[in-house]
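S.,

As promised, the flavin-adenine dinucleotide run. Input:
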Amino acid sequence: MSTLATDVAIIGGGLVGTSAALALRRSGLSVVVLDKGYCGAQASGVNYGGVRRQGRPLAQIPLSQRAHAIWPRLKELIGIDGEFLRSGHLKLARTEAEMAALETYAARVADLGLDLELMGHNGLRERYPWIAGHVAGASLCPGDGHANPRLVSAAFARAAERAGAHVMEHTPVHHVERMPDGFHLSTGAGIDIKARHVVNSAGAWAAPFAAAFGEPVPLGRIYPCLIVTEPVAPAMTVNIGAEGGGIYARQVERGNCIVGGVRGAPLPDADFSRPVGAPAISVMNRAAKLFPALRHAHAIRFWTGTEGDMPDRNPVIGFSATTPGLIHAFGFSGAGFQIAPGVGEVVADLIRDGRSTTPIDAFAIDRFVRTNEGSGADLMTEPQQRETSQ
Amino acid sequence: MSKKLRPLIVGAGPAGIRAAEVLANAGIRPLVVDEAPLGGGQIYRQRFVPDERTPRDLYGSEASKATALHQTFAALADCIDYRPQALVWNIGPTVADIAVDGRSRRADFTHLVLATGATDRVLPFDGWTIPGVFTLGGAQVALKSQGCAIGDSVVFMGTGPLLYLVAWQYLKAGAQVAAVLDTAPFAAKLNLLLGLPSQPGVVLRGIRYAAELVARGIPVHYGVAPIRVEGGARVTGIAWREAGKESRLACDAVGFGLGLRSETQLADLAGCHFIFDERDRAWRPERDAAGRTSVPGVYAAGDGAGVAGADAAELAGERTGWAILQDANLPVDTMRIRLLEKKLGAIDRFRSILERAFPFPTAWAAGLPDDVVLCRCEEIAVADARLAARQQSVVEINRLKALTRIGMGRCQGRMCGTAAAEVLASSCGRSLEAVGRLRSQAPIKPLPLDLTGEEDAA
Ligand SMILES: Cc1cc2nc3c(=O)[nH]c(=O)nc-3n(C[C@H](O)[C@H](O)[C@H](O)COP(=O)(O)OP(=O)(O)OC[C@H]3O[C@@H](n4cnc5c(N)ncnc54)[C@H](O)[C@@H]3O)c2cc1C
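Predicted complex:
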């Protein structure tokens, strides 16, 4: 059994863990990233690819804005642009009530830099003639877009490695403990890690690592289901979402459309999931109705992924409330792809400076405890209806 | 007891029909689903529109088997639920999603027989995407169900019994067969003699096909390595290497295939455990002698459970029918079961001989030029797979898919999966077994987006 000593050990090589690794390497700290499988093979690599600020809870906007500044710089940061396209994100309202919700949201984020543009039925028809059906109106966030998660996530891991991080794949962390001389991590690959700091970015698998330090969290799991069509002629010029959820869609350069809006079901081993026939068909039908260009297209593949989900849609990001040197960053509830590069920087801030200039108070791990005691902020009120994930 | 059984049989070929027959005879009403408009499967495929051709014209020496199977199936009509032109596109625990008549229906089952058959196993070569290049199976379908040839002057290339059978069928149908190019050396065929004592009929039939082709003056070349198929909008010729020297021949169509590959996606979705079959050079669902997979209530028979041919498929299909009865504690004919297993054992031993007579060209993948298209749906070249192996240390097939998109297109790896695994194994220096198998995803074939939502199937 050999032991590797490092400044920071990161549990989980998803986009959160690897972007933290990359940011930490820029501060000169030694970093070990451990993943039980391939880096970026879980939520970060199989998500829908929506790079979207619009629709997020207000508390996430500053963090989301920080990430927003990173996306156009991918080429310089990780060597590829990851097919990132600033297409805009158009959120549709199917009813007047949904339109009113979009208007309320737009008013609340007016000063936060999203530059939302509201439009009614006619305006929408004129600008996006390829959208059909009963649509009352929409809200456009021109700076949002989409990217290819499969490429982005793998490239972040490789970039962290090139920057000097020690990336250990197929190395599950079994146990973490805090000793007087720092953290000890035992792995399933015959190697132990000794670290001054630990980052818990184990995604849907993060709860046991929090519980081990006396911090139980209500982390659930969701399994968003996605559908990809055969390539069709370019039609969708923006990333589409819908107020109230139920459908989201984007078209990639090769012509395939990716459509989501429903969930799959876990297999007996809840680390794995499968699309479910009926909901998948219903979302296919919704897409065929909403986008006439897809009416005669075929779906060629479904897939699902495993995502950590918090009851208030907000992630857990920040220092452990019990254990110095431990930092949590998980529970992105179906919306971590866009903000992950920002979260990585925040994690690096915390380790390097002991604090971050980006506000993250709403994401404290003990917020549920505090709410129970009646001392917390009113975290659960959120005017927006919850979306599946995009 | 038997009233509660709702077996679902996927595939109305030799295996599926024989399984249905056993169940129906026991008073159980199975649901039989098949993509084709008529029963019979690939080998005993029936014509869309009746024409003047006799079963003898269509199925040659196998005419009596074809007729018997069609008759059995026709006689079952009142005792089974049969859904032709229907695609089982997903399997969940005890429920299947079926696309039929523009609708998706759910069918609950207590037992599932996967008799999904096989399709051509292919590897790419220079020019394989030029119009006019067909698989052997495709060439056969054109002839059997549509009564047309794939070209006016056809070259058949590859390995496997189907190579000679299809060439012979074309000859019989009056098409012009320009040549047969066998990728195996002539000496390999001598292995067939080992099979004479156990399966004389099969061996002699094969020899007859080859002999008749030669007698009609059709050139048969052995030990052939394809160089390229030539042409632009249409095939104009083929060039190959044989004993170190290059040859070329004008033709307007090429039928090629390298044996068969089992259709295993549904077994994967059903959660069956897979094993690597050295003889098939492929992963297939693990099964016992009765066709039971690792999942209780799920059975696999016929070529979909490992390639063994039509005779074995009929026997194995029947055997799974009995297995369902056994597993439901219903009476069975144990003598019959013993006979079936004995015959299946003999065919299995013969299969090993066949494999030596028609060996898979194991060096083909390593010798492919870099610029040949490997995955035609996504237009990914052989070079991309090799690069991923070299630069990104890819050693596993799903990882290759994730990083290169190979197998992500319309065919979902059904056509390119063999080639991807062979190329990856040869580039990363691992065995075919070690590079693993592509995980299946629903839908197993493309589904129209406007498919009408679900209803319970009868
Ligand atoms: C299908 C789907 C669609 C989505 N669509 C979008 C979208 O469009 N836009 C958006 O913003 N977000 C989307 N999301 C959410 C987004 O993908 C996630 O929020 C984000 O990727 C989370 O990143 P992560 O690094 O926390 O998690 P992950 O990528 O899951 O990484 C966690 C890693 O930890 C590893 N790990 C776990 N346990 C251990 C252990 N014991 N030892 C070592 N390693 C371990 C895992 O192997 C994994 O690689 C979607 C999610 C899914 C599943």
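The domain at 2-119+261-354 of chain B is CATH 3.50.50.60 (FAD/NAD(P)-binding domain). Chain B has a mean pLDDT of 93.

- D.
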